[in-house]
Amino acid sequence: MADLHNPSVGWTQQMRSGVWTLWVYPEVESTNILASKLPPWAAIRAERQTGGRGRHGRKWESSAGGLWLSLVIPAPELREQWEALPLTTGWVVMEMLTELGIPSLRLRWPNDVMVKNQKLCGLLVERFSPQTAVIGIGLNVFNHPEQEDAALKGLTARLENFLPSPPDLNSLALNLCSRVQAMQETIATQGWNVYREKINRAWDKNRRVECLLGENVARGFFQGVDEAGNLILKDDANAELTLNASQVSLLREV
Ligand code: BT5
């Protein structure tokens, strides 16, 4: 296992590309945990995670063959400006996948990249320090998540199903590094709203959803997000409903 406090222990490959240093490990508990103590522009990739993390304590299946990557970026001061990182990173990942030729891509709020109804990529953005954010990216490439958890059968997608020979995992990691750096610079200088229109185009519009807000459930057709990142739903009577994103623990497509 890698030493959580010293990324120089246990790695097998180290690569530099622009501002980034990418360390590759055979196995870690979670790349996000390993990245939590690292400075901006550190990137951690692991062949396997023994405790891959989803949101709200959920498990992320991380066997060999997938891209399990955490990127540390500067995210200083204005906290609100960085709250949309799951949305903007989702769009950046989708842009890369579109360029690779993956068909029928869409985003699902807040942090999933889907092919039709199957999840290809999930994101976990965490803030361990006031000055940085850790962007965890899980992308199924050659792995088979349903072999780890039979309940995922039919619910996941993987790059190998769409591309005869997907890029290797280091190339995908470095590709994402440079895109995430460009995104960080855009958000730092112009704010996240420059991405909002593109993001709003990438959802599956008019899909019926249920949103859990504590004990309550809000239902309607998903319309997108507003300038503050709040969710906009329309009910059957075409009335618009705004939901505070930080209060929505789960969005289910129904
Ligand atoms: C996520 O959570 O989608 C965030 C996943 C982030 C994973 C990356 S890998 C690198 C970094 N290090 C970490 O430890 N994590 C990040 P959430 O929206 O809560 O979705 C979790 C749900 O997705 C699970 O409950 C399963 O239903 C499903 N799932 C689990 N493993 C999957 C996989 N490999 N592919 C697709 N779906 C999966």
Task: Give structural notes.
By secondary structure, the protein is an alpha+beta fold. It has helices at 31-35, 79-82, 85-100, 145-148, 169-190, 196-202, and strands at 13-17, 20-28, 42-49, 67-74, 105-108, 112-115, 118-129, 132-139, 208-213, 216-225, 231-234, 240-243, 248-253. The termini are far apart. The mean pLDDT is 93.
Topology:
Blueprint: E1 13-17, E2 20-28, H1 31-35, E3 42-49, E4 67-74, H2 79-82, H3 85-100, E5 105-108, E6 112-115, E7 118-129, E8 132-139, H4 145-148, H5 169-190, H6 196-202, E9 208-213, E10 216-225, E11 231-234, E12 240-243, E13 248-253
Parallel strand pairs: 2-3
Antiparallel strand pairs: 1-2, 3-4, 4-8, 5-6, 6-7, 7-8, 9-10, 9-13, 10-11, 11-12
Helix pairs in contact: 3-5, 3-6
The structure holds biotinyl-5-AMP.
Strand order of the largest sheet: 1-2-3-4-8-7-6-5
* Main beta sheet: 8 strands, mixed
Radius of gyration: 18 Å
Write down the overall mean pLDDT: 93
Q: How many helical elements?
A: 6
List unreliable stretches of 5+ residues: none
Are any ligands bound, and if so which?
biotinyl-5-AMP
Instruction: Report the count of strand segments.
Output: 13
**Backbone shape:** globular
| Amount of helix | 10-25%
N-end to C-end Cα span = 41 Å
Strand content: 25-35%
Write the element-wise H/E pattern from the N-terminal end onward. EEHEEHHEEEEHHHEEEEE
Structural class computed from helices and strand pairing: alpha+beta
